[in-house]
């Protein structure tokens, strides 16, 4: 094993040292990445182009897709490149950027999921005040707060994590610069500040989780009082995908970050990291589009020949100007 210094970077010991398995995992990640990029770009495009989807729910969904697109791009392309090149090395600057953007985007995703749950609560439980509560100004301020909170969280974690002295070989048993794995490299009793920041972030995530749960308790209690079965089905088709995304993302991330650290690497670490880094950004477009009639109708409209002809004429008119 190469003895690396902090200035030279780290070795990412991902899935396997076998060349055949490295290429196999790289191809799997490439397929997942292309699906995630295509799906999320499609949602962003559809919501942007279709004026019928210019409502708070789809406004937040567009930002969720943007976050997913950025989130998966932080870790997966680097892992694909390392596997294909047979090179496990990542420089210090790359690792710093990866940790910052990973934590910032993950925190922002938790925040936007919380905002989306409140939006559904306001729409279902307070329909008469909905337009007042979720006015354009409130929506834009919510999104600014989401991105700002994520950036602040990423900045704190990055500053503290890379100020901790590391002992021994700089080998990370993960396919990206994962903070729990990096803390295993810390010298004894040197990571109390990172634990304090992690406790703050965990508390914030727990508050978001409680807010989401309270929103959905109110939503389901209201939905069950709707006399029309069709009305209940429509509400559930909107809310259940969001609840699934929240549960899957937070449970996988929570298990990985909150469980006691083990002394030796395991396949469980890799599996749960995939559950919250790769699967949610890949599945979110499918979950939100396949069960949403408005999204499916907008997709058919965007892909129709008439719409293509209309867009082409519009672009020609713009260039003439």
Characterise this structure.
This protein has 321 residues and is mostly helical. It has a single domain (6-290), classed as Rhodopsin 7-helix transmembrane proteins (Rhopdopsin 7-helix transmembrane proteins, Up-down Bundle). 75% of the residues lie in helices and 2% in strands. The chain is built from 12 helices and 3 strands; from the N terminus they run βααβαααβααααααα. It has a 3-stranded mixed sheet with strand order 2-1-3. Helix 1 packs antiparallel against helix 2 and helix 8 (229-258) runs antiparallel to helix 10. The N and C termini lie far apart (63 Å). 33% of the residues are buried. Residues 1-6 have low confidence and may be disordered. It holds the Pfam family 7tm_4. It comes from Castor canadensis. One of its GO terms (cellular component) is plasma membrane. Residues 39-288 form the G-protein coupled receptors family 1 profile domain.
């Amino acid at each position: 094993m190469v003895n690396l210094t902090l200035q030279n970077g780290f070795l990412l010991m991902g899935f396997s040292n076998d060349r055949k398995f490295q290429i196999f995992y790289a191809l799997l990640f490439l397929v997942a990445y292309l699906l995630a990029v295509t799906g999320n770009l499609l949602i962003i495009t559809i919501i942007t182009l279709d004026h019928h989807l210019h409502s708070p729910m789809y406004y937040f969904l567009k930002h969720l897709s943007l976050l997913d697109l950025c989130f998966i791009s932080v870790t997966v392309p680097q892992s694909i490149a390392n596997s294909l090149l047979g090179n496990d090395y990542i420089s210090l600057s790359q690792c710093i950027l990866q940790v910052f953007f990973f934590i910032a985007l993950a925190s922002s995703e938790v925040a936007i999921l919380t905002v989306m749950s409140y939006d559904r609560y306001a729409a279902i439980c307070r329909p008469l005040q909905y337009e007042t509560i979720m006015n354009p100004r409130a929506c834009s301020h919510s999104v600014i707060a989401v991105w700002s909170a994520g950036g602040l969280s990423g900045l704190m974690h990055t500053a503290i994590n890379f100020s901790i002295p590391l002992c021994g070989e700089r080998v990370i048993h993960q396919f990206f610069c994962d903070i729990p794995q990096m803390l295993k490299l810390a010298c004894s009793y040197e990571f109390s500040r990172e634990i304090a920041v992690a406790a703050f972030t965990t508390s914030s995530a727990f508050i978001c989780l409680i807010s989401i749960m309270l929103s959905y308790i109110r939503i389901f209690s209201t939905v069950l009082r709707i006399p029309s079965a069709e009305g209940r089905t429509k509400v559930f088709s909107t809310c259940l995908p969001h609840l699934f995304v929240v549960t899957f993302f937070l449970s996988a991330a929570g298990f990985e970050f909150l469980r006691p650290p083990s002394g030796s690497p395991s396949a469980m670490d890799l599996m749960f990291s995939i559950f919250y880094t790769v699967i949610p950004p890949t599945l979110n477009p499918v979950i939100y589009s396949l069960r949403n009639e408005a999204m499916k109708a907008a997709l058919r409209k965007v892909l129709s020949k008439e719409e293509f002809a209309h867009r082409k004429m519009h672009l020609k008119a713009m260039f003439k100007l």
